[in-house]
Amino acid sequence: MAERLSQIQNFLQQYQADSHMQCTALSGDASFRRYWRVQSGTQHWMLMDAPPVAADCLRFIAVARALAQTGLRVPQVLKAEPAAGLVLMEDLGDDLLQFSLTEDNMQHWYRQALALLPLQQQVRDTSEGPLPAFDRAFVLRELQIFTDWFLPVHLHLPIDSATQALLDTSFGQIADEVLTQPQAGMHRDFHSRNLMILPDRSLAVIDFQDAVVGPVSYDAVSLLRDCYLRWPDADVALLRDEFYQSLQQQLLVPADYTLDQFRRAFDWTGLQRHLKVCGIFARLYHRDHKAGYLADLPRVVGYVVDIAKQYPELSAFSHWFEQVVLPRFAEVRACGQ
What we know:
Aminoglycoside 3'-phosphotransferase, Chain: A, domain 2, Phosphorylase Kinase, domain 1, five-stranded antiparallel β-sheet, globular, 2 domains
């Protein structure tokens, strides 16, 4: 750790050699990256510390530049040393959208956030090349996190041959539905913790380095069915339908792509995301010793239950989830996990 701090100080001195900089560690996110607030007098910056994966820094920088070119407000990169996993950038403050949302203002803020997505969707490649495709292999790889971490590790549920066959069939259906929709540039983690309110009350976007090209509904459902907040279904439905209308008006989906198709895509894409997140939150707890995400698991599990039971095609999966997974999840929660 001392060696890393020395490397960071040397990197910062290359940016402002004559100033004394103080680094304050910020609470981490769900990735391997760490963030520091760097201060020198009245000036302050944000440092992303992402060793040892240089490609992650290069991807962050390239996506940041591509998004900025569309007009999206993102942190400006000031200095980078990708080989060391260090990026110094503009500090946009601490005002995350999540902590300003209320039932009275959520529609205002969410409309503003959804209005950013057509800009995000323009970005399909960067100076590093085309964005990865959120294709069938990608979708199934993410769903495997549920199978690997949520079921056997968190719930201690064995996966016998019948259960595996059910999961294979259900995940195949989900992948088909997710991919049967128009494709666009995709943030992949667009929600209230990755949107910042600036002093002029506009929104900035952060944590975008995992951008891909994928389903047009993905970022909207990530926002509206947030893993950290849940809003009344009527509000979500209203904003979902408004977003579809905006896509139609801006010619971002084919004219014959109907609202009913979008609603279905929104549900199935959200289901894929929430199953993946069940696995990710379990992995963060058991592998990375980050217990804070356990408090959000019931909300994510609730989304899975509510959406799966709406579709006859998923009746077998829904029945298994409610009869097998939910009781075991309740038992594990009662044990404090």
